[in-house]
Predict the structure.
Amino acid sequence: MTNETRQWDHEADVVVVGTGAAGMTAAILAHDHGAKVLVIERTDQIGGTTAVSGGGIWIPMNNHLYEIDADDSREEALAYCKALAMGRVDEELITTFVDTAAKMIRYLEDRTPLKFAAMTAPDYHPEIEGGKLKGRSIEPDPFDTNSLGEWQSKLRLPGAFSLPITRQEAFGAFDAFYRPWLIPQDLAVERMEKGVVTLGQALVAGLLKGVLDRGIPILLETRARQLITEERTVIGIQAEQGGARLHIKAKGGIVLATAGFEWNEKLKAQYLPGVIENPNTPPFNEGDGLLMAMEVGADLANMNEAWHFPSLMIPGETYEERPLSRAILAERNGPHVIWVNARGQRFVNEAANYNSVGKTFLSMDTDAPRFSNLPAWAILDSQYRERYVLGTTMPEDPDPEWIPRADTLQELAEKVGIDPIGLQKTVDRWNTMVHHGEDSDFGKGNSIFDRFQGDREAPNPNMGTIEKAPFYAVPVHTGALGTKGGPKTNSMAQVIDVRGNPIAGLYAAGNVTASITGPGYYGRGSTLGPAMTWGYIAGICAADNAKQRA
Amino acid sequence: MLSAKRELSVTTDLDTVWSFVSDMGNWAGQMPGYISHEEVNANDSIWTVKIDLGPYKRPVVMDIHVVEWIPPHEVRFELKGKFDPFHGNGTFRADAAGTGSAIKLEFQAEATGSMAKVVTAMATPVLKKITDQFSANLVKALEERSTSDQPPQEQEPAQAKPPAWSREGIVEAAKRIF
């Protein structure tokens, strides 16, 4: 699209759209490579999806895995990533990621206040070729937000009762999946009082400090609307701020880091095969970058994929005035719980990674236009209830009214709309398999990953009978950590057109792009690892482009 | 332990103040994040309010019990989370101050249960915000009473609604909010 605008409200070498991890990494690298950078952010808060995330980053061959006696190699990382891509991703992109990711992390540790540590969490598929039992997932160290000065109040807050405890502290050292009261509460309180954050907030805060230290301006409440092109080259961007239109020039290029389209109902209906009932991200990810890139001829890929995240919703809880979707962890991974559909049948290894579990909700019945496994419920009994957290309810708290419960499975089934005969058969079979110590239907507990996610104090970390009244049926909801389809990019983070040619001046990183993971999910941090790596590349390349155009 | 105190001045005369506070329904509506309330009897009610923790908000259901009415000055009450582990108590005291009234509010609460420490830390700034907003709402409501020339309007009996604290009640409230 050609635009003859020449009156610019702002001018920069590189304009970055979005303040998640991908965007701020791009901004830092562009600056450090000699570009004058401007960042624009749609909302009044910094951090986007990253800020509400767990902050895990999947980085093969990272410089911290050796600290926890883990190891890795290029060959193993490539084999693993390629296996999970299932032939649907250009292998050059995978190679670029594997060869660049660790470099990106070291760069940020050298040039920003961020420090990272490796987690003992396994890859999500540790048994396939190249999979690892620990070390590839890293997370930021706790970060003191007082260093942000007046920008401290601009840091996006997380979506729920998110305590300032690292993932490794919560699930590695303690058993917070199942027993959140075991986390060091005095430490959490001390950090809260001192403004120290962890998880995604720590990552955002550290990157923001890097941006602020470099004097990179950030325009908040500035929504990017349209790319400005001249002779098929992106030369700027049109945005809205306070009802006024801004024209921003970008000599070297625009880096789109605008997240996915999981809150855009029209785009979801157009591209996604299933239902994402309620995403887990801030409700501003509506495909702004995708639409802008499509308008200038971007080729698209992976559009049918999302970072699936089955969730639990507590009625009345909201985030940014939208219903809140929470992680569902103990209520699927642990003993004394199974998931069933309306037929009362199990349909998945409940302890598998959330992306794989989420994909089972895409299955369709063959005899009717109906999703086979929606609605779905987590069925658990009082053995669960007595031991573990349920949503936000601790064992000693009264049963919340929103969770259906009954003294018999039949009564429970009739209450919520499950076939009672089917449910009884399934539970009977489950209990038999528990006594034999193996889930021969779906393999719950077979994988090292499953057992890592299970209750380490239970006789079997993933399996326990469901036989003690009362019984509960927790509604399961389909969620997503974002979409992962969008404009295709090359190894220089340039957006490419349908002929495979780069669209001059246009770069992209993060969930706005066609993910280099394809249909797969490597492990904790699979969204942020590639996102930040591509942000790193985009910043460098856009800055170099600006020098060439000078 | 969480606590809050406020001293307020209103132009409303003492009798009007007492007429207002002696109906528990009038209190509930002044709570910030008010969703609904159900009056069980003259001394007991169940309130559902939405607690504001910034972009994150969640409904909380609590049992309110008036321990003692001391007309026309004082109300002493207790509260308890219906599904969340907290309890508290408070006092409302009004005295004539010229043609208006001087009001003192005192409130204490305690989070219990296995997550008490972090819940207390999270609740401390929230309690201050709630108390400030409640006080402002109460002053506004009382002063509207004192300036109004109209007698309170007769209200049509409300249609039967599910109890506020029930699953249906919370889902209904959530629908209204969304």
